[in-house]
Structures are given as C-alpha cells and as structure tokens.
Amino acid sequence: INARNNVCIYVQLCRPTMVKICKMKSVSEFKPDPYVATVLNCMMWTFYGLPFVQPDSLLVITINGAGLVMELVYVVIFFIFATSPVRKRITIAMVIEVIFMAVVVFCTLYFLHTTKQRSMLVGILCIIFNIIMYASPLTVMALVIKTKSVKYMPFFLSLANFMNGAIWIVYACLKFDLYILIPNALGCLSGTIQFILYALYYKTTNWSDDDEDKEKSNLNAEIELSQA
C-alpha cells in the first residue's frame, strides 16, 4: 500500500507539467533531462531490488518498476512534442541507457555469483545514477538563474523529487541500507536548493507569456516543415 501511495503521489505531482505540454503542443523551454535520467535510475533500482541481487527488497522493485513505466510515458510525451534536435538527443540518450543496462545485467549475472557481490556492484551504480537523476535539474537551475524565472522549472517535479528523497531516507534508515541513504540525502539537498530558487525568483517570473510559447512552437514547426 505504501509503495502504491508513493507512486500515486509522484504521478499527481508531475502530471501538471505534462498536461501543460500537451495543451501547448510544445515542450517550449522545458528540459527532458530529469525524465531521461530518471528512466535509467529506475531501471538500475528495479534490478537492484531483484531477489538474486538484493533479497527482501520488494518495495524497491514495485516502486521503481512503476516509476519506470511512468517515466517512459513522460519521455514519449516529450518526444512527441519536441523539436527534431531534442528528439535526436532523447533517442541517443535512451539507446545508450538500454545498452548500458544490458551490459550491467550481463556482467552482474555472469561474473558475480553471490548476492553480496551483486548488491555491492549494482548498489554503487545505483548511487551514481541516483545522484545524476537528482543533479539533472541543474540544467534547468542554470536557466532559472540566467532568466530570473522559474517558469520552466516545474515546482511539482521539484516537490516530487524532494519528497521521494525524504521517504527513501526513512526507508534506508529502517533497512540500514547506505546505497539507498546516500543518494537520496543528496536528492533532498537538491530539492532544497530548487525551493530556494523558487523563493528568490518567483516574483520576477512572467507567467502570462503562454501565447508566446505557442507562437514559438508554431515557428519551430514551420522551420521543421521547411527543412523536410
């Protein structure tokens, strides 16, 4: 039940950004980086929670398995409404992630024969990619500081990442699992920094330029058609 509730919270918090993209029929200045990074992160953690890697980790499998499905949906939405250069970036990133994941699975199962060895290797990789996932909004943070606007740093995504990190910290403390504790502590720190940026730049944000976004989307579409 806790796993299901955690997933539902994440869906509700991230949905507004996706609804806005669908309404505008454009990703505008929104970045796909957090979603693409989270796909690999969810794949790694789902693999980590399997019984032959880390026994008794059912919650890790269910939450991250569901998260993987949702993130793939978000990436598909981004891909549909993105410009050609962004689509190319997403495609390259996803192909690299799938190949890398296949290599990790093969090496783990073929060369390591105990759950302790497997959980150590996959756990270290999970830490690395969990940190990358939480650091992926840095590209958006740079845009926020440059434009003094938080319009393209979705608040609900920041809140979801912060809450996700906080909940996993509690779980890691109960399970005494450092592989889960370390990256999610950094995730909470990343979320806190994003909240600070919101407090600093919320008042200077122009929220009334959606029409400009639509015009920009139409212009990008015309450019793509002229290049076709």
UniProtKB/TrEMBL annotation:
Parts forming coiled coils: none
GO cellular component: endomembrane system; membrane
Topological category with respect to the lipid bilayer: Multi-pass membrane protein
A biological process from GO: protein homooligomerization
Keywords, alphabetical: Membrane, Repeat, Sugar transport, Transmembrane, Transmembrane helix, Transport
Localization in the cell: Endomembrane system
Domain of life: Eukaryota
Gene Ontology molecular-function annotations: sugar transmembrane transporter activity
UniProt cross-references to Gene3D superfamilies, sorted A to Z: 1.20.1280.290
Stretches that traverse the bilayer: 59-82, 94-113, 119-145, 152-172, 178-201
Family: Belongs to the SWEET sugar transporter family.
Name the UniProt record assigns to this protein: Bidirectional sugar transporter SWEET
The organism of origin for this protein: Brassica campestris (Field mustard)
